[in-house]
Amino acid sequence: MLSHFTRHQGLFLMSVILPLLAFFMCVVAGNAEPSNIEWLDVLGEGSVSLVLLLWILALLISRPAGKLTHLLVIGLNLILFSSLLDLMDEFMDYSASSNWISMMESIPASIGMVMTTFAVWQWHKEQLALNSQWKTREGFVRNTKDLDPITQLYSGEHWMERMERAITHTSCKFKTLVLLDINDFSQFNCHYGHVEGNRYLRGLASMLSLSLPENALVCRFAGDRFAILLLQDSETATTNCISQLIISIQHYAFYPQQSNSPICLSARYASEHIGNLKQIQPLIHRLNRLLDDQHTHAA
């Protein structure tokens, strides 16, 4: 939480000061009137204010610093400011000279809604850019609860669902399942530790996602094993894609913490053409056995 405060220090302060300013203005401009409170209005307006506050907190915790984050948080804070003034109306009685409070209830909210609308449009463009980067991970369906926390790739079960859908709707003739296993990854973990191992897998996952065709799907199958669906129009294109992928892994330079020397690992793979959806589970078991046999012979 401290790191989030440091990153958005100004926005956090604004999110505290504006609500306090709203309460202060109401106390200065009017007098408490506890005898004529509409509790149903209090419940509705209070709920709106609470939800706005939770949205602001969620944005500050989850988003990186930047212009878009500033627009969203400032816009929502202005709407919250007006909402709190509206809520305080239920508890206060204002004199004729305090009509400016009514103006303050509407103007900040209007400005905030314009800012938030513009920010949402910018968020839309940001999301389109992220979608293009995540295409090989998601298969156009997002379900973040199934994300692997280390690699940010989908788990095997969710990937299986996306793979079945991709195979059903593709026009490509060659549908190939590839399992990749990183050579000597256990020794790497023993030497550098699991934290560095996780960093390696995270970087490798990003590299795999960027190195694959847009219609491919990749997931972290288990441990240091990755599963990839390749959809190509020819066997030659499939073979070339796998070969280039293996070369990319060999040239992926990972720098451990406090080290200027890169570590490059290699990978072994097993692949087979997918005939129909009923063959997928037996095919996966067969490819797993092939990789395990390769590991045994290499040892």
UniProtKB/TrEMBL annotation:
Its EC number is 2.7.7.65. PROSITE patterns: GGDEF. SMART domains: GGDEF. It holds the Pfam family GGDEF. It catalyses: 2 GTP = 3',3'-c-di-GMP + 2 diphosphate. It is an enzyme of class 2 (transferase). SUPFAM superfamilies: Nucleotide cyclase (SSF55073). The chain crosses the membrane at residues 12-30, 42-61, 68-88, 100-121. It comes from the Bacteria. InterPro entries: Diguanylate_Cyclase, GGDEF_dom, Nucleotide_cyclase, Rev_trsase/Diguanyl_cyclase. GO terms for molecular function: diguanylate cyclase activity. Residues 173-299 form the GGDEF domain. Keywords: Membrane, Transmembrane, Transmembrane helix. The keyword Transmembrane applies. PANTHER family: DIGUANYLATE CYCLASE DGCM-RELATED (PTHR45138:SF9), REGULATORY COMPONENTS OF SENSORY TRANSDUCTION SYSTEM (PTHR45138). This is diguanylate cyclase. The lineage of its organism: Bacteria, Pseudomonadati, Pseudomonadota, Gammaproteobacteria, Alteromonadales.
